[in-house]
Amino acid sequence: MNSEPPFSQRWQQAQRAAMELPAPDPAAQAHSLQLAEVIRQRISQKGGAIAFHEFMQLALHAPGLGYYSAGSRKFGAEGDFITAPETSPLFARCLARAIQPVLQSLPQKQVLEVGAGSGIMAAGILQELTALHSPPDNYTILELSADLKQRQAATLQPFAERVIWQDNLPEEFNGIVLANELLDAMPVHRVIWQQGQLQECYVASEQDRFIWQTGPVSDPRLQMRFEDIVAQLGDLPDGYVTEINLAAEDWIKTLGAQLQQGLLLLIDYGFARHEFYHPQRHQGTLMCHYRHRAHDDPLILVGLQDITAHLDFTAMADSALAAGLQVAGYTTQAHFLLGSGLTELVTQPQGDAAQQLHLANQIKRLTLPQEMGELFKVMALTKNLRIEMPGLMVRDLRNSL
């Protein structure tokens, strides 16, 4: 490999100024440059370009350097974005109430949370289930980040006797699996429809920056999927850019094979296929989050920003069915929370007027259509289990898939 100089600050500063992104401190900048050099080496090894899904994998998960594997704070006011559990403890309490009867019906009362973030959702669920006299026998967390494991352990210290950490999915599992804002951060393939041909988006390095290139698709499933999309929805405009999340589909298929009996609850933002691949969504759904600012350039601030893409929930349902799972429910976050006891929890005494106002703002963030209420969806997948969850019955959207 040519001994090129490390990425300069000039181009990144220009990009941040254009988007009004705050400048990283010197330590964060050095961290980003180190990861950028690792990515450039991979690009060189692959002949000058790598598919975007590989770039995204490195940017988020490169050992010790990727966004989720390094030690920067990601969640909450001090991080880059706020998840629903960080927004309000009501989210975890409603989730606990939703899964409590399912948990009680299972021979093995186990919960597995994949990617537990700061651990605040797990703590809220365990606290509420304990208050309902229905604590799980154990609460397992699958977490790859050593830094996040430490933070989760600190948050979950009051429930230490019930919490177990694992690095891999168990070969067999009976119980409830929770995945909140997990699949949106899995590496996606980015594709573009140009002059009647499907091309894949690749990332190359040019002087002091990463750039986009296009080339043949790296996985034949991409071509097959796009042909299915066009057959179902009609032709898409020339230059149409979108994402296909094969990693999430593969993850569901793997879990479907390993889940013997139980429930998989997916909570994430996305759409059914006819909405996801709408002609007006011609630039895709890729989004980056850096210090509570959202933008659409994943090629800057590597290792310092989150990179996500919305889910095609139709593809998730198809993968589930192929893996022997049943789609037991699909609805919006707002309707799921309302059906899972949100109104009952809100009517309980909540302190003085200031506390009530704060609570009202939390509820708005969780349920309003322009906030998390409509964009976030809840999908319930089951195996060898029949469930009746009120949160899935308020507004059943399965026919939209």
Description:
The chain is α/β, with parallel strands linked by helices. The protein has one domain: Rossmann fold (3-Layer(aba) Sandwich). It is 39% helix and 23% strand. The chain contains 15 helices and 16 strands. Strands 2, 3, 4, 5, 10, 14, 15 and 16 form an eight-stranded mixed β-sheet that branches. Strands 1, 6, 7, 8 and 9 form a five-stranded antiparallel β-sheet that branches. The longest helix has 20 residues. The protein starts with 8 loop residues before the first helix and ends in an 8-residue tail after the last helix. The N terminus is likely disordered.
Strand residue percentage: 15-25%
Estimate percent helicity.
Answer: 25-40%
- CATH architecture grouping: 3-Layer(aba) Sandwich
Summed over residues and divided by their number, the pLDDT gives a mean of 89
* SS field, number of helical segments: 15
CATH class wording: Alpha Beta
> What structural category do the secondary elements indicate?
alpha/beta
The third-level CATH topology is: Rossmann fold
Number of strands: 16
Distance between the first and last residues' Cα? 48 Å
**Spans with pLDDT under 50 lasting ≥5 residues?**
1-14
The count of domains is 1
Rg value:
21 Å
Main pleated-sheet profile: 8 strands, mixed
Overall geometry comes to globular
Keywords:
401 residues, alpha/beta, Rossmann fold, eight-stranded mixed β-sheet, 15 helices, 16 strands, 23% strand, globular, disordered N terminus
